[in-house]
């Protein structure tokens, strides 16, 4: 493998690892969403350092030119991440729906309680008025 | 053998139905005086909620538009919480005739084994009342063939939102209701949960005004999405949400 490719690959995956780590450290990225990113960066870094491993992998999946196997790995992770995001979005949409429904129902309860209370107060006021 | 319902509710989902919703509520009060009426204003941008309140309905306002499925489910949640034993869905656009509600109700009372009745536009008596476009009719044909095969009972009007459910149905729909194309999917859901339903012929009207919240754009794409949704519903890994099972919305499920 051309050593320039290796250097670039190492630099990119190290950078990715560092960015993800830093984002988690600053609490900008929740750990649960960082796991896949960390795994992706770690595997990519591993393959870019350990050339033999990459060649073994390329051989196993039938890729003639070993460095392009790293693209397959990266593509796999990208697909996984996208699917993961779709899952997260679906869940968020579900939760938002439940919250919106609750909010509507609770608002309705609040409004009717307020109306009842106002009616009671008015009644009390009239009674006092009669007494005085 | 028959049964009685003591606390019936009419659920009226409405999205931007200011011109019609008042009339719908008034008609409900007139023809079904013992029904409480709850209007679910699904994030309307016009004065739908005010119009409904002025006509004497209770109103739940969703903070933003959830779509017909989310709105209707909200109504079922209201019914569940307030102990209603009968709930009928009536569209806010006035296409469902309130006079037919007593027909649906008495059918449920006479048939205690049923959990839901649906008003169908396409059973014999109602032929003249309703006309729709050709692609739409073809779509309905396809769905009714599909659903009839799945549920092994004739279903002539799979997209009808004019349906009445008993307590079991209310409980089920309050917990879990399909999102996007609820009428068709709900039939499959009901079948999975072994609740029994039947269709009754009803008259329906042309919409009185406003825009349809349910199927304003009936297209090939819409058809495809509903077919997908039904396919998914048939093969759903978790057809039942019974007490103690995993909640339909769970905190964390990563791949």
CATH topology annotation of chain B: Spore Coat Polysaccharide Biosynthesis Protein SpsA, Chain A
| CATH architecture annotation name of chain B | Alpha-Beta Complex
Mean pLDDT of chain B: 84
Class per helix and strand makeup of chain B: alpha/beta
> Which range does the strand content of chain A fall in?
under 5%
Q: What's the total helix number of chain A?
A: 4
Radius of gyration of chain B: 17 Å
The domain count of chain A comes to 1
| Gross morphology of chain A | rod-shaped
- The level of helicity of chain A is over 70%
Can you put this structure into words, describing what you see?
- The complex is a heterodimer of chains A (132) and B (255).
- Chain A is mainly alpha-helical and 132 residues long.
- Chain A has one domain (3-131).
- Helix content of chain A is 90%, strand content 0%.
- Chain A has 4 helices and no strands.
- Chain A has helices at 3-25, 31-49, 51-61, 66-131.
- In chain A, α1 packs antiparallel against α2 and α2 (31-49) packs antiparallel against α4.
- Chain B is an alpha/beta fold and 255 residues long.
- Chain B has one domain (8-234): Alpha-Beta Complex (Spore Coat Polysaccharide Biosynthesis Protein SpsA, Chain A).
- Chain B is 39% helix and 14% strand.
- Chain B has 8 helices and 7 strands; from the N terminus they run βαβαβαβαβαβααβα.
- Chain B has helices spanning 18-31, 48-54, 67-81, 101-110, 134-151, 167-175, 182-192, 220-234, and strands at residues 8-14, 36-41, 58-61, 86-89, 116-120, 163-166, 197-201.
- In chain B, strands 3-2-1-4-6-5-7 form a 7-stranded mixed β-sheet, with helices on both faces.
- The model of chain B is unreliable at 208-215 (pLDDT under 50).
- Classes of the chains: A mainly alpha (132), B alpha/beta (255).
- The A-B interface holds A 32, 35-36, 80, 83-84, 87, 91, 94-95, 97-98, 100-101, 103-105, 107-108, 112 and B 40, 58-64, 66, 70, 73-74, 77-78, 81, 179, 248-250, 252-255.
């Amino acid at each position: 493998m051309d050593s320039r490719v290796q250097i670039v690959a190492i630099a990119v995956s190290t950078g990715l690892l560092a960015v993800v780590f830093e984002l988690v450290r600053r609490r900008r990225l929740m750990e649960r969403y960082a796991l896949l990113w960390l795994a992706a960066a770690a595997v990519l870094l591993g393959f870019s350092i350990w050339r033999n491993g990459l060649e073994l992998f390329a051989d196993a999946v039938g890729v003639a030119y070993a460095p392009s196997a790293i693209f397959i790995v990266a593509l796999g992770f990208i697909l996984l991440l996208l699917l993961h995001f779709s899952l997260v979005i679906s869940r968020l949409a579900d939760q938002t729906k439940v919250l919106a429904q609750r909010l509507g129902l609770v608002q309705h309860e609040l409004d009717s309680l307020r109306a009842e209370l106002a009616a009671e107060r008015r009644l009390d006021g009239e009674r006092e008025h009669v007494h005085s | 053998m028959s049964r009685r319902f003591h606390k019936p509710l009419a659920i009226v989902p409405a999205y931007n139905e200011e011109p019609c919703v008042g009339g719908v509520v008034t008609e409900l009060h007139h023809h079904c005086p013992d029904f409480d009426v709850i209007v679910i204003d699904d994030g309307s941008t016009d004065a739908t909620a005010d119009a409904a309140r002025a006509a004497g309905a209770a109103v739940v306002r969703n903070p933003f538009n959830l779509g017909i499925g989310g709105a209707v489910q909200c109504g079922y949640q209201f019914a569940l919480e307030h102990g209603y034993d009968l709930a009928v869905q009536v569209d806010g656009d006035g296409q469902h005739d309130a006079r037919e509600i007593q027909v649906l109700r008495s059918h449920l009372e006479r048939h205690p084994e049923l959990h839901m009745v649906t008003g169908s536009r396409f059973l014999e008596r109602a032929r003249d009342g309703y006309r729709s476009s050709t692609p739409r009719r073809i779509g309905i044909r396809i769905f009714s063939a599909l659903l009839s095969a799945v549920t092994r009972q004739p279903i002539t009007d799979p997209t009808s939102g004019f349906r009445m459910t008993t307590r079991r149905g209310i409980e089920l729909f309050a917990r879990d209701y399909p999102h996007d194309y609820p009428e068709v999917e709900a039939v499959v859901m009901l079948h999975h949960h072994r609740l029994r339903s039947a269709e009754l012929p009803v008259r329906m009207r042309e919409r009185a005004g406003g825009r349809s919240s349910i199927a304003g754009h009936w297209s090939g794409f819409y058809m495809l999405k509903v077919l997908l949704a039904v396919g998914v519903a048939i093969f759903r890994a978790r057809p039942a949400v019974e007490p103690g099972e995993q909640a339909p919305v769970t905190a964390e499920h990563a791949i």
